[in-house]
Description:
The protein is 17% helix and 31% strand. By secondary structure, it is an alpha+beta fold. The strands form 7 sheets. The chain has a 5-stranded antiparallel sheet with strand order 1-2-3-5-4, with helices on one face. A 5-stranded antiparallel sheet has the order 12-11-10-13-14. The chain is globular.
Amino acid sequence: MTRWSADTPRTPDLSTVASPDHRSIDHGDLSKEDRLGRGGNADVFRVSLAGSETPAALKEPRLQQTITEETFRAFNQEAKRWSKIDDHEHVVGVVDWGSRPVPWIALEYMDGGSLRARFDEAETSLDLAEALWIGICLCRAVRYAHRHGIAHLDLKPSNVLFRETAAGTWDVPKVTDWGLATFLTEHSGSIDGLSPAYAAPEQFDTDEYGDPSDFTDIYQLGCVLFECLTGEPPFAGSGSQLMYAHLNDEAPAPTDVDPSVPEELDRTIRCALSKHQHDRQETVVELRRDLEAAFDRVVDKVDTRDGEGGDSESETVPLEAASAQTDVAATPDDPSAADRHTGTVDFFNETGGYGYITTDTVDEEVFFHMEDVGGSDLEEEQKVEFGVEEAEKGPRATNVTRLNTDESAATDTTGTADGALVDGTITGTVDFFNETGGYGFITTDAVDEEVFFHMDDVGGPDLEEGQRIGFTVEEADKGPRATNVTRLNTDDSEIETAGAAASDGALVDGTVTGTVDFFNETGGYGFITTDAVDEEVFFHMDDVGGPDLEEGQKVEFTVEEADKGPRTTNATRLNTDESAATDTAGTADGTLVDGTVTGTVDSFNDIEGDGLIVTDAVDEDVYFQMEDVGGPDLEEGQRIEFTVEESKNGPRAKNIRRL
């Protein structure tokens, strides 16, 4: 195929702009330089990274806002979700993320600006070949996200950034800002933060058009592609006018705006811009294939015009002619073999249960549905053998059989000859988990097959990626589903947890020990990581009492189920040896009590005659006034002994005596 050959005009070497590897960094290692952009509830800065000559980008919540528990959860969720797919060549890379001192995400620095800026700076539309190539790249990124169960839902020119490449080649586009992205099993009718010029009808009216889904990304890609081809979006006007147009007006054809656009793209773009989701392309792969076909024709015309060879039309071998070629799937000596082909799964949509296979002989993509395969879902890169029949929308694979890498039939102790999972205990590893939806996928050891699971079938705290487990499988509406899931140690023995957790790792009523992992002083809340099952539990200082808990503090507590998950109750501070933290100055939970307390003057205001004392026992600041001391002013660093009484503004030192 022409589009990815070395002879394709201006195609860059993608390996030169690979995303950075994930690495562990601290927020303090990042030095802010220029503000790159702002939108929604976040700012993005160019930053330098200690010990590195390569700049990065830093996304933080806007500091003028109050950083709430929801902000912390949203950033953490976005970072985890984004990092699942950032190994794709057209997705902006995630370096690291954290929660201190504010939630933050460190990202690949994109030095080529945005597609929005290129539209604004250009007097005309993009070069046709480059516009199509950008569209193909975006489709590949979105398709990869869909393969991982993620829909972006906010595709627009400002969320397409570029990495600069060598002179004479196109810059590489990558999709950024997955803050509104959602998993395909979730539903969101919110339009907060959306750009109305690129929003789909279902994002304005879910009652009429359904919940946003992967089809929403196809519509938004249609809007972006329309602007790539014509220099303007399909609809214009104010926010309310745009909403009305997306809901009611027929989308124009690109040739209505720019007659030089190839006419065959009218059908492609208008299909993507259909009002109802199921009138659009079945998958983003179908949209990509239309763009690739147009790209091939455009490039071949350029080659012919420039005298560089090539045909006026892209030459591909029809699949029907594959049996005339001599290969392992069709030989003259075995007529029946002519009806069979070998290939590799190129794309699979888990939600819809369908995908595409690229044949070995003619580099042609063939549609398949799992009802033609049987067993568990096919994975991308799986070798298969199959027959072909002509369907309404083109060739369709039939009688699909899994193959090993040596092209022998795949068979295994936990599966049938075609690789289907069967009843019985299976071991595997959690490959992916969606915290919000409470579901994920387990990769089995025997047949390298992904099996869906939901926490309803597991119990206890969320499973983490990399967790070893044993389970059985039952057939569900959308394919195999894990049941009777048991956590395993690395040697595959069943986990025996103690104290705070049942044998399946579930947090139970009773005393739990753990360590404060994160604390937000402004909001007065944080998270404790339990010792037994490495599970994060939310806490609020209303449930603790006494001075703020510090990160690293050992605690003992009980757990109750709250609306958003487990919540800490009855928290008690512990010493490092897990004995209750107690002192002459405080109770077992660290609160200051009546009695003699020792401490050190931490600050003193000469003019007002007041200050703060840090107590020895619980590292708590206590207010004092010189009228309660007598004698000359106390100096910072002075050791003192005192009692404490509760005042309307908090604890206050009384009966102060210098030591």
